[in-house]
Amino acid sequence: MKLEMLEKDLYYHIYNRGNDSEVIFRNDENKRYFLSLAAKHLDQAVSILAYCLIDNHYHFLLKIDTEEHTATQKFSNLFNAYAKAYNKRFNRTGSLFEKHFRRKKITSEAYLRNLIIYIHRNPLNHGVTPDFANFKFSSYRFCIEPLLSSPIALDKEETISYFDDLENFKFVHLRQANFRDEEGVDW
Question: Which domains, from first to last, does the chain contain?
Fold first, then answer.
């Protein structure tokens, strides 16, 4: 399978899950470590608009700020570093993630807005929490709380700008919404 190249100045949904839907974040410490690695490897390479970590998968919405080969290598370094540390910590071997990380180019502003909402509501959609707004491993609360500092560089202003202002950003997130991508697939 040929993977789509990551093109500079374009937006992508980057996501993956554990091999055979296995848990890839057993605890909050694992999630914090993954975010610290993301900060280390992705800083200067991407602009992150939204993210969410669930026990068996993750989502990022981001813009590529560097050349395609460099961006791909940065992601590879992040995921390899995390998998090696996880395997060592839990005395396991083999692939942690399912195949290569998935990437989907964002082709419209409407799709981008819906994806931001989808990523932020992901913990609610998967039954992880009834209150997605306070979920610790999503960028939502860092977007709405000006004094909170995200563990990774987050372009809050750009994220909110797609909704005109903070009040509308909150309003559309609180609406019950199903996400359907441009190919008509429900997420």
Answer: 11-174 (3.30.70.1290)
